[in-house]
Every structure is written in structure tokens, then in C-alpha cells.
């Protein structure tokens, strides 16, 4: 997995985390000023880095993203804001760019001030180590991990007008056992030629179909952030409408792969659940139903128990604000018709249950008769192990 | 615990449930026509009895409520509606009243047709056994139980103008291990003289402060129903404004006691959690915050782990639609200041954690600076046992 042209990255252990060999700092740099956009948590209680970065995007002269793990710099007041700005200043000094062109994320424990000493040594070391090879990219994916068990990277290549354009991204998040919250961070880079408004629009499109379609327990963190940077270093000319469409597809796929990787890395989960809601009049309706099913503790425990419990799924659908009655819902689980015309269908319960038990992936499909809108959503099941992991963590 | 004047009840095992000695039928009868109201699930996928009863309240000539457990008669189409009406007809025939004056509830497995044979024999037997003593009242509380481990009754007496007015209620619900959903049913009776509009208004007031303030996993069932019946048999004259206020307080208390009993009966839960949100500008704001905290899996697992995890609570508050920032929130847990002015307070973590571990009751208080509205909400924690119980049940 490699970076797009004109990007370099680094990741290392600078000593923020207790175990001094665990990576806790990542840096992504564009060799030339680039366009970029960000999407942030909607939680009103948000970390200082969110407040600082939010002011700097969309932008067209961005140069770097610096990320530390081990401390979220959230609920830290004015001093937290100063610390976040100070981090971007350190990066800017080392790269000889403006601090306003550096973005910042922090993830980890909340309510504690950022430890400046390790970061003060770590940032110059990261600049020193910047590289364009796959190892440098992997190191950067590792520096942002908290409870993740695997680094998360994804990449697509699009060929337009004889030029190869790359879209490469990293993410962190393993929602089940997040120390305080399920913080999700992602940096996606491309060497396509885009302006700031284009990055903003394309990033929102991608996030709406990826990171906004994954949920473990429905709790948005104080620090969730996704960035898109585009530096034009591929050498491709300005893209046509059709080419932009190809690039959007690649970007959507990278974001989806990263979002799904977070759910797949959910420790304590036994099943990876895909929920497809089709036939809605509005996309928002399909989204509300998918999200309600995904966050329903009774649905999630049923799946953990390999139980094709149509009652819980149909009832979760009914308790949304989408106007419908029980005859409007057609439910398939793993491709088998389970519920239609207001009644359970004829099916082999044991076979469905065995199918859930024996496979990590489960597909729940809800068909409605109202329109053409479809949403695909991903979640995990709710197991005893999830509860054990989340109960045993203490601040 | 006794019924109000002029009410009789019965409960017995008629054979709907697999184990033939387990109670599964309850009957409540007023000796004279009475005023009554109902509050029903907002779930659009709702049981046939909800559809039938909803048409019959508020009313001023009601005579009886019949309830069966073991079968919810939900997702049963037209035949389900016929079955529910047929049940009320059987009661009406036995009591020589009109079927339209009989209300009906069913709770249990969904998607299966009601078994008519046991009910056909059970209803005349229940009519035969109707009694006004405490045993008859307890039997009726038992006949509506599903996964409840204890029958739930509550009673208050108000003295007005030299007359004693009783408010007596029963409820069922043990949300954690509900077979399909957390169905909650309650019947509250009073011998106060009220008209239909008064019962409707007073019931809504009480439900808003009781059953609407309890949640285990945020899933409203297909069958949730609360009825209030008032037959005037106390002999009290029409009540003054002040006397109506006294009666409302008694009714609120009965409903709160029943609602809390449902949370306390939540199998698999280790803690009974009271969430108090004060200082909100609107009651709806306080309610949204309380409900969001109550349904947050990360907050609930933290409590199961005896962890005073202010980060999860403050973040859950921030992800509501109530406009606020982290400096607006003051958090106490079990009376100790945990978070204020955007930062964690100084407190003894071990002492707080020990306090949670050693007591079943936990009090979470959120103070806001916006107004005078307060909501008190009750929930349980999220334990491994909850997941085990909900996973292992299969349809």
C-alpha cells in the first residue's frame, strides 16, 4: 500500500503512551500546498484539535496533518486549544510552512492536558523520518492507533487521460473497546488536481456512504475527524465531469473499506453485520431505519445468539419516524425471505440459525415499497465479550 | 395490596403457555360502567389488541380489561384483529355487557395466531373466580407476567372530603430478557369520580413522569399499553381542583412505582440507575439528555464496571440536539462532584468506584444553567448477563 505522489508520512513512538515502544505519533505531509477538506464529529462536546482544525478547512494551501494517540486533548479548556495550536506550530517550524496550513487530531484519554515533552521531541523526529515508501505509510497508520488491533489502510488507482491517480487512506477506530469513546480518525490523500470546494464536496459524499454508515453503539465521539487532501502531483490535467465521477467512486470505495475495517476490528464482536434498506422514498428514511436496526441492543444480541429474530428487526423498523405499517416491510436474512405481508414467511429456522452461527458476515435486507432510495450500513453484534471489555476498562 | 371499591379481578393458568401451571390470563372488572383512558406504544408495528383497544378509549362506559400472556397477537394480520375482538366478546358475554366496553392486551411471542381453545375455557373460569380481595388482585398481577420474576403492584390512598379514594395498579415488564421485545403493560384503577377526559389527561400526565421515564435498551415494543379506569365507587363527590391535584400525585406515584419496579426486575442487571437532569430550558430537552444517557451502551457498561466514567456521560450529553457546550455541564455521581467548568473535578476515584460497586442504586445528576425544567429517568446497567440472556433466547 503506497501514498499518492507528492505525499510523505511517518509514524513513531514518542512516549505519550505508558508503554514507551507503542507508536503514538503520525505525520502526513504534502510536498506542495494542497487543497483539503474535513468532516468532524457533530458532538457539541468536542476536542481542542477539532476546534482548531475546523477553522482551517476547506483550504487550498494545506501542507500537513499531525496526529497523536494516547491523549485526546478533549475537555481541556483554553489550555487544550493552545496545546493543539502549539502542535501545529512545531510541525510548521520543522517544515518551514505556516502553522495555519497544518491540521491536527488527537485521540486517547480525555480530560488530561497534552504532555508537551514527548511531543516536542517526537515531531522533529517524525519530520526526520518522513518517507514516501510503503513502510512510512504503514508507520503513519500505526501512530494513530489506540485500541485497534490492526492498522487500517486502503488504496485505489484510477486511470484518467493516460495518467494514474491514486487515492490512499488510513483510519483508526475499534469502536467496541474505545477507552472513553469510539473515536474514529481518517486521513485520505490523492494526487488528483482538485480545488478546496471539490475536496469538500467529494469528501462529504464519501463520508455519507462510509463513515456515516458504520455504528457500533451509536455514540459519536468528541474527536471524530476525516480529512481529504488533494495535491495534484499526479500531473493529471483538470478532470472532466466523467473523470471526477471515477475519482469519486474510488474515494467512496477507499472510505467504505476503511469504515468497514473499523467494524471488522471491533474487539468482542462475533459478527460483521451489513444492513441494506431499499425502496425508501428518501435517503434519510432509509438511513434512519438502518441506523435504528444497527443500534438496537435486542437485534444485536439476537445476532450474537445466531437467532434470525424477525420480530426485533421489524419492530425496530416500526419505531422509527418513517411512516409505514407492518405490511410494508419485506425482510431477508442472508438471502432467505423471513417476513412479508405482515407475517413471518415459511423458512427453515435451524438452517438460518446455523448459517448465522457458522459465518462471520450477516446480511439483513429490508425492502420497502415507497421509492428508489437505498442505504447500506455496517455494524457488529453485541456479545458478552463486548460488555466485559467495556466494563473492565476504567478511567 | 387491594383493589379500589367496585373493582374485582382474577388471574389463572388457562394453558396458552407451554407450562400448563403458569398463569397466563388476567381479568379486571368494574361493577359499574366507568371512565377510562389508554396510552399505547408509538411503534407503528403494533399488536392487534392495541388496534382494537385504541378505538375504545377514552370512554365513559367501560367495564373490563382482559389480558393474556404467552402470545402477543402481533404481526397476525386480519385474523389477529378478529381474535382480539373475539376475546373481548367472550368477556362481554360472560359479564352481560357490550364488547365495545371491554379492553384487551396480549403479551408474549409475536407472529403466531392466538390459540382460541385455552382462552375459550379460560375466560369463563376467570369470570367465575373474580374477587375483590388481595389474593384476587395478586392473581391478576400474575396472569400478565412473561419473563417477570415478581408480580408488580402499587397502591396509594387519598383522603378527600372525608372520603377515602384508592388508586391501585399492576404492571408487567422485565425488559432485559423480554422474549421478543420489552413489552410493558399496566392497568391502574381508582374509585375516584372522573369523566373520560379527566382520565385521559391524568393518565398522560402520570405516564409522562413514569413509564415514559424508564428505558432499558430504548426499544419500544409492539404491545406497550397503560390503562386508567375510574368508576366513582368511593362515593366521593366531584373533586375540587385541589383534590384532583392530590389524586394526580397519587396516580403519578403509583405509575412511578410500577415503572421503577420494571427496571428493578430487569434480569441480568446489577445496578438500578436514576438519572436526574435539571436546569433545562424545556422539559423535552431534559428528557432527550436523560434518555440519551440512559440508552448509551458505553455509559451502561461503565456502570456495570463500577467506573465513574464522566467522559462517556458528558459526551452522551453533547451528542443530543440540545444546544450546549462542555462548560455548561455539571455532573455529580452518587452526590460527588465529578465534572464542572469543562474539566473533571478533584475527587477520590477509588471511593466513587467502590460506592458504585457496593450499592445497587446509582444516581447520575446533570445540572445545566438554562432554566428550571427537571426530568428524572430510570434505567439499568448493561452486563454480560444481559447479553447472555438476550442472546440465548431464540424464537
From TrEMBL, chains A, B:
InterPro entries: Arg_biosynth_ArgJ, ArgJ-like_dom_sf, ArgJ_beta_C. The record marks 107-108 as: Involved in the stabilization of negative charge on the oxyanion by the formation of the oxyanion hole. Pathway: Amino-acid biosynthesis; L-arginine biosynthesis; L-ornithine and N-acetyl-L-glutamate from L-glutamate and N(2)-acetyl-L-ornithine (cyclic): step 1/1; Amino-acid biosynthesis; L-arginine biosynthesis; N(2)-acetyl-L-ornithine from L-glutamate: step 1/4. Its EC number is 2.3.1.35, 2.3.1.1. Substrate binds at residues 146, 172, 183, 267, 390, 395. The active site is at 183 (nucleophile). One of its GO terms (molecular function) is L-glutamate N-acetyltransferase activity, acting on acetyl-L-ornithine as donor. It catalyses: N(2)-acetyl-L-ornithine + L-glutamate = N-acetyl-L-glutamate + L-ornithine; L-glutamate + acetyl-CoA = N-acetyl-L-glutamate + CoA + H(+). GO terms for biological process: L-arginine biosynthetic process; ornithine biosynthetic process. It is found in: Cytoplasm. The record marks 182-183 as: Cleavage. Its main location: cytoplasm. The keyword Transcription does not apply. One of its GO terms (cellular component) is cytoplasm. Keywords: Acyltransferase, Amino-acid biosynthesis, Arginine biosynthesis, Autocatalytic cleavage, Cytoplasm, Multifunctional enzyme, Transferase. Belongs to the ArgJ family. Catalyzes two activities which are involved in the cyclic version of arginine biosynthesis: the synthesis of N-acetylglutamate from glutamate and acetyl-CoA as the acetyl donor, and of ornithine by transacetylation between N(2)-acetylornithine and glutamate. This is Arginine biosynthesis bifunctional protein ArgJ. It comes from Gimesia algae. The gene is argJ.
Amino acid at each position: 500500500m503506497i501514498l499518492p505522489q507528492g505525499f510523505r508520512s511517518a509514524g513513531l513512538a514518542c512516549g505519550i503512551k505508558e508503554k514507551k515502544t507503542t507508536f503514538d505519533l503520525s505525520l502526513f505531509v504534502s510536498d506542495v500546498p494542497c487543497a483539503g477538506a474535513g468532516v468532524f464529529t457533530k458532538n457539541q462536546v468536542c476536542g481542542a484539535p477539532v476546534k482548531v482544525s475546523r477553522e482551517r478547512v476547506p483550504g487550498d494551501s494545506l501542507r500537513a496533518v499531525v496526529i497523536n494517540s494516547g491523549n485526546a486533548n478533549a475537555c481541556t479548556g483554553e489550555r487544550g486549544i493552545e496545546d493543539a495550536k502549539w502542535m501545529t506550530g512545531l510541525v510548521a517550524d520543522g517544515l518551514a510552512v505556516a502553522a495555519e496550513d497544518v491540521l491536527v487530531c488527537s485521540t486517547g484519554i480525555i480530560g488530561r492536558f497534552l504532555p508537551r515533552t514527548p511531543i516536542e521531541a517526537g515531531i522533529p523526529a517524525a519530520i526526520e523520518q518522513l518517507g514516501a515508501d510503503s513502510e512510512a505509510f504503514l508507520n503513519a497508520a500505526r501512530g494513530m492507533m489506540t485500541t485497534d488491533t490492526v492498522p487500517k489502510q486502503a488504496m485505489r488507482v484510477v486511470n484518467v487521460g493516460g495518467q494514474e491517480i491514486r487515492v490512499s487512506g488510513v483510519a483508526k477506530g475499534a469502536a467496541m473497546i474505545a477507552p472513553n469513546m469510539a473515536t474514529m480518525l481518517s486521513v485520505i490523500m490523492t494526487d488528483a488536481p482538485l480545488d478546496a470546494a471539490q475536496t469538500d464536496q467529494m469528501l462529504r459524499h464519501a463520508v455519507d456512504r462510509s463513515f456515516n454508515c458504520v455504528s457500533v453503539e451509536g455514540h459519536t465521539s468528541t474527536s471524530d475527524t476525516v480529512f481529504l487532501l488533494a495535491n495534484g502531483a499526479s500531473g493529471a490535467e483538470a478532470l472532466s465531469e466523467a473523470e471526477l465521477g471515477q475519482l469519486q467512486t474510488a474515494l467512496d470505495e477507499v472510505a467504505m473499506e476503511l469504515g468497514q475495517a473499523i467494524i471488522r476490528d471491533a474487539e468482542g464482536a462475533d459478527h460483521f453485520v451489513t444492513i441494506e434498506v431499499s425502496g425508501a422514498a428518501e435517503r434519510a428514511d432509509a438511513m434512519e431505519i438502518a441506523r435504528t436496526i444497527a443500534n438496537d441492543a435486542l437485534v444485536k444480541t439476537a445476532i450474537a445468539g445466531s437467532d434470525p429474530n424477525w420480530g426485533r428487526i421489524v419492530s425496530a423498523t416500526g419505531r422509527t419516524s418513517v411512516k409505514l405499517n407492518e405490511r410494508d416491510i419485506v425482510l431477508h436474512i442472508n438471502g432467505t425471505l423471513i417476513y412479508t405481508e405482515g407475517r413471518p414467511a415459511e423458512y427453515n429456522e435451524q438452517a438460518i440459525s446455523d448459517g448465522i452461527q457458522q459465518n462471520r458476515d450477516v446480511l439483513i435486507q429490508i425492502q420497502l415499497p415507497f421509492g428508489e432510495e437505498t442505504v447500506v450500513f455496517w455494524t457488529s453484534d453485541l456479545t458478552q465479550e463486548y460488555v466485559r471489555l467495556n466494563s473492565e476498562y476504567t478511567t
